[in-house]
Specification:
It is rod-shaped and about 175 Å long. The chain has about 200 residues and is mostly helical. Helix 2 runs antiparallel to helix 3. The chain is built from six helices and no strands.
Length: about 200
């Protein structure tokens, strides 16, 4: 009734998992058969000894023939177990390989999508812009760090002097002679006026 209202769960058991399980079950059954045969062989050998002691050689011979046939069965069983185990290992390894291939396929699809977004031309353009920006920043750093040559510093000083000369407009020198004596005025007026000094 649980599936009435809920959706069906998809089984995570694959056909390969079922095959591996069946192979392992068959292997286990063969091992049980092998143990039974081994126990029978020991019993029949002991029984053959007993028969020989009793003087029943014909019966002992027949029992040893049966024992020999069972030993051949035991060898065949061992070969079949070995084949089953090899097949289980092959299936399990193939499952691992399939997962690896699926992972590679997904990774390849992801790389292709990324390559569609970024073409080689786009990457070259971005790298070029980055190199230009780095070069421009290096030039700014050199200017700020004071790594100017002597010629650059001389040119900067000349330009500074020219700008300073332009800004300083000095008054014209009077062409008339100055009076010889300045009339005396009140002591407050006699104080010397502070001189203005041009900043250089």
């Amino acid at each position: 009734m649980g599936n009435l209202f809920g959706r069906k769960r998809r089984s995570r058991v694959t056909e390969q998992d079922k095959a591996v399980l069946q192979l392992k079950q068959q292997r286990d059954k063969l091992r049980q058969y092998q143990k039974r045969l081994s126990l029978n062989l020991e019993r029949e050998r002991a029984l053959a000894r007993q028969l020989l002691k009793e003087g029943r050689k014909e019966k002992a011979m027949l029992l040893l023939k049966k024992k020999r046939y069972q030993e051949q069965l035991l060898d065949k069983t061992e070969n079949q177990i070995s084949n089953l185990e090899r097949m289980v290992q092959d299936i399990e390894f193939t499952q691992i390989e399939m997962k690896v291939i699926e992972g590679l396929k997904i990774g390849n699809e992801c790389l292709n999508k990324m390559h569609q977004v970024m073409s080689i031309e786009e990457v070259e353009r971005i790298i070029g812009e980055t190199q230009d920006a780095v070069e421009y920043q290096r030039q700014i750093d050199e200017l700020l760090a004071g790594s100017l040559t002597e010629e650059d510093e001389d040119a900067i000083l000349e330009e500074l002097n020219a700008i300073t000369q332009e800004q300083m407009e000095l008054p014209e020198v009077p062409s008339e002679p100055l009076p010889e004596k300045i009339p005396e005025e009140s002591p407050a007026k006699n104080r010397p006026k502070p001189e203005l000094v041009a900043a250089s």
